[in-house]
Amino acid sequence: MKFKQTKLRAIRQALVAWYVRHRRDLPWRSTTDPYHIWISEVMAQQTRVSTVIPYYLAFVRRFPCIEDLAGADLDTVLKLWEGLGYYARARNFHRAAKIVSQKMGGRIPDDFEEFKKLPGVGDYIGAAVQSMAFGRAQAVVDGNVKRVLARIFCLDFPVNNGASHGLFLPHARSLLDPDDPGRFNQAMMELGALVCTPKNPGCSLCPLSQFCLGFGRGRVDEFPKRIPSKKVPLFQIAAGIVRRDGKLLITRRKPEGLLGGLWEFPGGKLKQGEDAETACIREIKEETGLTVKIDSRLTRVCHAYTHFKIEMEVFYCRFLSGEIRLNGPEDFRWIRLEEIDQFAFPMANLKFIPLIQAG
Questions:
Q1: pLDDT, tens digit, for every residue of 209-241?
Q2: Which of 41, 82, 190, 313 is catalytic?
Q3: CATH homologous superfamily of 234-357
């Protein structure tokens, strides 16, 4: 279905008028600086806005311009990102900043296709930054926008299918205001966040209800369509706090993959039929070459990632013998407890570090 130009104008005017009255006062909405908008959009991927705000403010204070970020080491960047999750976002953004600073004279490309060549910049980030910072007529399609589109047009495309972006995009483009694409994109996302919510949408408050096929046909609750989620696997993990001469052993994950570049206490998955103490000793031996003995159990940590969950048994371990020979991690440190806040750790480790600090 396509709207006629008169209806398209009415949709755009109604949506933007609603947005002007009801939008949230978010710190990145007061700027057209492409770097600051880029930061906010990278952080907001798969993360609540309320969580993003303090991270965004701290990041902008520490790295006011893209050259500042490009000149920082990865440890510093990851430490500022600590707890925000999806650390590949930070690594890619750091890499992209270096490219912009070193090869583009510090100028963020104002061309959609050129911008998308940078690490971590896909269709969503590309459209968001290009439309909001440079006024490029690129339609944003994120989870909120998909939900709005699915209800307006009664679209059967599953929103949680990776291939669905290309199916929703033509509909987003058909509504986009080419004269004010940045504000229109923000209005669409805001509508999905505040009114056209996953459950109990506020249709009586929606500025687009008169244009919405889902509402007009009484089918709002049928959309958006989703592919049923698979059962999330649970992994049993053991980790050891290895102590030697008043210091603790931490290892650094390789830069690629899940939690890449972060520091952690060594450990790994239990094998079938293996108890946690045995797994802890075995994993430390395999990863570091050290022989240790369990002194005591510290705690159990439960944590959920996007596609799996873990239950981690954490032990204090005493160093017995051996020299560090890394197998898996890319680096290690023997640190004093008071130095621990200098390193970026995964959230699962952050959950038990206060117990170590409390003694």
A1: 999 999 999 999 999 999 998 899 999 999 999
A2: 41
A3: Nucleoside Triphosphate Pyrophosphohydrolase (3.90.79.10)
